[in-house]
Amino acid sequence: MWRSMRTDYLIIGNSAGGIGAVEAIRQIDREGLITIISDEPYPVYSRPLISEHLAGEMDLVGMLYRSDDFYTVNKVQTIFGKEVVCLDIAAGEVELADTEKISYQKLLLSTGGNPIFPPMDGSDKRGVFTFTTLDNAKEIAEMVKEGSRKAVVIGGGLIGISVTDALKKLGVNVIIVELMGRILSAVLDEEASRMAREVVEAADVEFRTGHTVKTIVGDDGIVSGVILDDGEEIECDLVIVAIGVVPRIDLVKDTDIKVNRGILVDRHMATSNPDVYACGDVAESYDFIYEDDRVVPIWPNAHIGGRIAGYNMAGKEAEYHGGTAMNSLKYFGLSIVSAGMVNPMRDIECEVLSQRDDGRYQKFVLQNGKLVGMVLVRDIEKAGIYFGLMRDGVDVSDFKDSLLSEEFGIISLPENILRKRLDLPDLSKLSAVTVREEIEVVVDEG
């Protein structure tokens, strides 16, 4: 581990975006000093896997996002387990909790999000947790080892369902309390949400939708139950707040960096200050489906945004072409993929194609002939093809009726689209057999 009061590239946050930035910087600049600061003590790990860690299915080594020699190989100075408490844009420096100051030439804010924690009486009791970090998983696992067997999970979104799946594997009884009228409402439509609820309920999970926790009760500072907003009392010895996250923008609040819901960035991932960049859950960046800047807190977007930031920080111009929400779930044995505009607003004119059969469900949302949203339940193998059509803005009008077909695949696409997407020769000059062989070679090669 190195120590320095000055660095060329300073990255605050040791997750997907920060790692993407390091890799991009090192492609351009092999010698500039890179420093990563993180308030967690661990090397970079995959946050989507913390539920598997809680369930005992994945250790830290299996969760590592990069090899354990990543920082050494890339000559990265690491400052782990310390928090940045102040950012001085004019001086080009940050201050750590121990008053150490580090100056920088270029800064990347990859600080992620803070868990949403609504006001509740008794929330300071032992047995109340959030679920966004590895330490959260470790602490909850320890409580279960000590004998905790009844949990209330506040939030029926992605985080809530993931921690519930892990807890059930540990033999814990779970009741999910969700303020909205259905679970996974932010990422699924009503039909897919209903299907997911049926599967979760079949695993002996109870729901209280349309409600929230008003009070956490217990004696001697230890959780013994909760009281809902309608007065219902539920006995439990664990409460996990899993509502979601909000951009962690505390560092820039007293600076001139422009903020909306998240830190505003341009297509180079630069903030309103040309020496400061942002990516991941903290950034408000371009969404190619909505054609506007939005906060899209998903892992792949963070990594791509970090790479774009890293290139530009090192002097190579690169442009972020945009991301959009894409979520892949596999909890309670149910596979679901959703992306883009799955619940279009009433004032948005869209065409919806959908079908449900044999326990499967497909839904596609079209706007002006282009695919702008999808939900797939159980049959998710073709998700990459559909998402590619969304990302590339392909007009699917001429073959939209085939989207729902079981036979739909890459070779179902019209000839002109195949040539563009797969970089094939002019198909009109090839025989049918040769066309199929050319396509299959490209698909096999990725």
Query: What percent of the residues sit in helical stretches (DSSP H or I)?
Result: 10-25%
Average the pLDDT over all residues and give the rounded result: 91
From the helix content, strand content and strand pairing, which structural class follows? alpha/beta
Task: Find the count of extended strands (DSSP E, 2+ residues).
Answer: 25
What share of residues are in beta strands? 25-35%
Number of helices: 11
Shape: globular
Distance between the termini: 38 Å
Largest sheet: 7 strands, mixed
Q: Segments where pLDDT lies below 50 for 5+ residues?
A: 424-446
Q: Radius of gyration, Cα only, in angstroms? A: 24 Å
Describe the structure.
It is a single chain. With 446 residues, the chain is an alpha/beta fold. It is built from eleven helices and 25 strands. Helix 1 (16-28) runs parallel beside helix 8 (299-313). The longest helix is centred in the last third of the chain and has 15 residues, at 299-313. The protein starts with 5 loop residues before the first strand and ends with a helix.
